[in-house]
Design a protein that fits this description.
This protein has 874 residues and is an alpha+beta fold. Helices cover 37% and strands 26% of the residues. The protein has 24 helices and 35 strands. Helix 9 (297-315) packs across helix 12 (345-375) and helix 20 runs parallel beside helix 21 (774-787). The N and C termini lie far apart (104 Å).
Amino acid sequence: MKHWSSEALREAFLTYFEEKGHRVVKSASLVPANDPTLLFTNAGMVPFKDVFLGIDQRDYDRATSSQRCVRAGGKHNDLENVGYTARHHTFFEMLGNFSFGAYFKREAIEFAWDFLTVVLGIPENKLWVSVYEGDRESEAIWLEELEVSRERFSRCGDKDNFWSMGEVGPCGPCTEIFYDHGDHIPGGPPGSPDEDGDRYVEIWNLVFMQFNRDAQGVKTPLPKPCVDTGMGLERIAAVMQGVTDNFDTDVFAKLLKKAGELLDCPNLSNKSLRVVVDHIRSSAFLIADGVMPSNEGRGYVLRRIIRRAIRHGYKLGVNKVFFYKLVPTLVSVMGAAFPELRKTQSLIEQTLEREERSFAKTLATGVKLFEQAIAHLEGNVVPGDVVFSLYDTYGFPPDLTADMARERNLLIDEAGFERAMAVQRRQSQAAQQFTAGDMKHVHIADETTFIGYDHRVSSATVTTLLHDHLPVNELHEGEEAIVILDQSPFYAESGGQVGDSGVLTAPGMKFQVLNTQQHGKAILHIGRMLMGTMHTAMTLEACVDEQREDIKLNHSATHLLHAALRDQLGEHVFQKGSLVEVDRLRFDFSHPKALTAGEWQQVEDQVNAMIRANHVVEQSVMSMEDAQSAGAMALFGEKYDDDVRVITMGEGSKELCGGTHVERTGDIGLFVIISEAATASGVRRIEALTGRYALEWVQAKRRTMRHLSQELSVPELELVAKVSQVLMNQKQQQRTIHELQRASLGQQVDALSSQAVSLSNVQVLSQVVCDIDRSALRDLLDQFRSRFSTYAIVLALVVDGKIHIVAGVSQDLTKTFKAGDLLKHVAQQVGGKGGGRPDFAQGGGDQPEHLNTALQSVTTWVEQQCQAGRVLED
């Protein structure tokens, strides 16, 4: 057979189906859009799930794609097998063709067979076919129309050849095509007892969504049957490159070579090396698609993958950062097919390096703890408390510990680990309860037309009233309720913008709207009756208050801020969250480190320059495809309709957005950043002000500067230099004071040494000192210690009513009593406490009126301790 590169295979597949009338669809993000049931996009059909379900409509009825996928976490999890098998990967490409009612079994089977045998030139006798045992139609197509040999044909049951989207919903039979690597490889054909061997490898699965299954298990034919097929690029590349192991293909060749160099591992078949190169692909693509390492959800899965790779590098003897250095090689291999990888290269490298350096601090200690734990292990199961300790203290995900255990033929106590986790969760999490305003379980069929882009005031008709979440016909004064109208100018909270507030009025009636929320297609006006009575079918006036104007300023400024951050910091910056309120805006974005003072200023300056340019804010509705072609920014994980609203502000900002905005950027007036900080690993948060709130903030700063200017008697422009001078003078004075104090210590030592009491061979000193600061108290004690050989010393200093105490005991006396015992004797008498080493302790108290009595008791206390320990000489 002809040798095919992976790039050529991808291109040939997409071209073939494009010529067969399929729309080539760009790979979707690894983060599924608005699908909480999935951690990651794990199959080619995921982006088309709503089309198959009949929820979404497309302007094409057949499609083809090369979809990037991740299987690590959740139901489909290949993480623990990676590196140990020839075909498991956390990241892979799924080549697929799809029909949404355009064609069904015959065409799908013919396309697959034609592509494999004609385009790729695979001999028919190297292919094996399986069908669902009850699918006579597919069987006839294979055996009678395509004349596939019955000797290379299997019928299989539900487990292998019947596919379903879930317990209920679309389902149907599938037919699979396998490649036979030859009888020198162990394994039997599909459906045989030896089918798990490596000889027969599934390369293409054709799923026929033919039925809808209800809760009782009854299958009803779908009105428009669909086709979903998938062929792993890595697997077909192995076939076309004459190898039996995916890691021996060109997909991994350059990465393995680079990893071998970084890890000083010339054996490119090493399992740990394979883990590393597999994991750099999934890690990099997840970060490119907006996932950041964290301790929950998708971010935690990413962190597990990264730490597993780092641990395997450590296993190969590498104690320095290496993982992020594979990114340039990955980009050179896959950047052309996936441009988003190249755009976010800097972010990926910085994120991985930071995560690697963080984990390196605890990796060696954690591995050592594991080795110690299994050294005394009875049996072959690592206890759950050890697994939990590695997780909780050293950041070892349990599957990483399981990985280490498996290498030693051990298991981990998963149940014990889960029990420890449950205890921690109970201790750290408060119970979650529904709030009074929770509408999750309330069904509302109403639809409200939003007219707020053009109006702040409009007439409307009441369609539904809810009191205590139950429908009512009337509302009365003082009642809290929810009002639904046929049309409304009130914007419901969405896209980070808070909901509008205002009033609903009619003669003799007034309802205060405190918040506005979306529920299905209805807009909920949440508030309370201020006067009169409201009833269903009533006509009223809906009026949004002036806060809308301030919110518009902040929302438009958020778009300008996003554009400025990408211009100044790089295209790795993406919105991770936002909050647009009346008096401020908050914007979370991907960036690995704090902004420098220069970057802060540049971002702020660019936003204000765009404000001064007074661009017209253009609002247009277009298809999603046209919006993306025009360069409009879309948010990761958001699901959009076919027609989207695009907000454009000059040349620099173009985003998909459903919020309310100013008419011209100049309306924003002024923009100031008031804070910038981290919210999570790789995520920064900016808070900013606009309009009158920004002006008030600047004016407050100006008043502060004027006050300082007057206090320091310098012009405002010279304040920085003056404050620097004052601080420098203060530091110099502190140094001078400290030097004088140290010089005076010798004098105090001379004066106080004469106050020491000799108990035979033990010198006892307990005194109040003065004219020194707290930091010098210990220095003074050290000078006394150098003068005596056997001693017990207590020194006390009173500052602003607070007592500071230090105690020292010579090393030979610590066998009889310790400095902490001596200090506790004094501190307890003055309302305090303390502690320390056997020869030194420090503490304090807050009852200086008892200090002299406490110090006077020291000599007697020491004498008693020494007599009990028979320390004193005769």
